[in-house]
User: What shape does this take?
Amino acid sequence: AQKVTQAQTEISVVEKEDVTLDCVYETRDTTYYLFWYKQPPSGELVFLIRRNSFDEQNEISGRYSWNFQKSTSSFNFTITASQVVDSAVYFCALNNPSGTYKYIFGTGTRLKVLA
Amino acid sequence: DTEVTQTPKHLVMGMTNKKSLKCEQHMGHRAMYWYKQKAKKPPELMFVYSYEKLSINESVPSRFSPECPNSSLLNLHLHALQPEDSALYLCASSQVSGGPGVGLFFGSGTQLSVL
Assistant: This one.
C-alpha cells in the first residue's frame, strides 16, 4: 500500500522564524517520486520540487530546502526566515511508475506566518 | 501567473442546471487531469486524459462528464449535481513522456456551489 502522512495539521510561526514541515511516506516500490506542492489562498497548487527515490541529495532553493532520507521514509521541507507570503497549505505527494498518473497526496499542513 | 487557465473561477448552480467547467493549457502537455478538493482536504483524482483519450476514471458518478476536445483543452460537463458536489474543482496538466515522475501543473480552480 502507498501512503503519505503529514502529521502536522497546522503550524503557526512568527515571521523570520525557520519552520520544518514533515512528510513520511510508505511504498513497497523501489522506484518512486516525491513532491511538494504549495496551495496559497488563491487556490492553485504550485509545484515546488520533485525528488526520485535514487537521489537522496538534499536540495536548497533560496529559503527552501528539502531533506530526503530513505532510511526513515521521510521527505521534510524547511523554510528558512519565513515570510507572510509563505502562508499556505503545503502538500507532500508520492507517485510511482506502477501508479501511472495517480498521485498520493498527504492531508496537507496549513502554515500561518504571522507578521 | 499560472499556465493552466480555468473558467469560471466561481460557479453557483441549482441541482437541475447543466453547466461546464473549462480548462486550457499551452505548455504542450499531453496529460490532463480533473481533481476535486473539499475544504481542508487534499485533492482527489477524478479523471485523467492522456493524448486526448480518457485513461483513468476514478469511479466518478455519471453526472460528471469529462471531454478533451484537443490537446490544449479539457472540459467537465455537469448535470443534475447534488449539494455534496460543492467543492473546488482543479484542472492540472503534465508531460507524458516523463512518466509518473513529472510534476503536475495546476490551474487556480473553479469553486462550485450546488444549491
User: Anything to note?
Assistant: Chain A touches chain B through 25 residues (CB under 8 Å).
